[in-house]
Amino acid sequence: MEAELQFNWPLLIAEAVRRRRALKLTPSRLAARAKVGKETVARFEQGARDVRMSAVLAILGVLGMTDQRDLKFDGSFYIDIDDSVVFWAYDRGVQVPCRILYDALVRHRPNPEGVRTEWVFMACQRDIEAVAWRKYMLNRREADGSVLLATSDIA
């Protein structure tokens, strides 16, 4: 998988070095905090392309250059008065409300038999959570920080 990823290495390295210096970290201190060898930091900063991805991510993480968001769903939900489904996720302990409109839900999972809304949702809950996760990670949230899934979000 690592071979499939493409980065603008020179730009990435330049920004990493700039941040390391701004944080007043020596390469040795950066290596200690990232739990990698000093040689690894040196090779990374010199532009070596054979540095392991896990080491690069550890270095970038110490420098604040990685996305630390981690959205997890707790499986709970309820049907609100609009017949939409409200469900919750948590990003590092902070609750993130999510909601899928009924029209979007039945577009994803048609309901010709008039099955109860909660059953329709439970039948495709993991798929809906995946769409909410993707929208959250793309910063496509409502002004209040919630994630709203409308018909246009469901493929």
Offer a concise description of the structure:
This protein has 155 residues and is an alpha+beta fold.
Describe it for me?
43% of the residues lie in helices and 17% in strands. It has 155 residues and is of the alpha+beta class. The protein folds into 2 domains: 2-62, lambda repressor-like DNA-binding domains (434 Repressor (Amino-terminal Domain)); 71-153, Double Stranded RNA Binding Domain (2-Layer Sandwich), CATH 3.30.160. A 4-stranded mixed sheet has the order 1-2-3-4. Helix 2 packs across helix 3 (38-45) and helix 2 crosses helix 4 (53-62). The longest helix has 14 residues, at 9-22. The radius of gyration is 21 Å and the shape is elongated. The mean pLDDT is 91.
Draw up the topology in text.
Blueprint: H1 9-22, H2 27-34, H3 38-45, H4 53-62, E1 71-79, E2 85-91, E3 94-100, H5 102-108, H6 117-123, H7 125-137, E4 147-149
Parallel strand pairs: 3-4
Antiparallel strand pairs: 1-2, 2-3
Assembly level: single chain
> CATH homologous superfamily name of the largest domain?
Shew3726-like
Poorly predicted regions are none
Give the helix proportion (percent range): 40-55%
Label the overall shape.
Answer: elongated
Beta-strand residue percentage: 15-25%
The CATH architecture name of the largest domain reads 2-Layer Sandwich
Regarding CATH, which class of the largest domain?
Answer: Alpha Beta
Report the span from N to C terminus: 26 Å
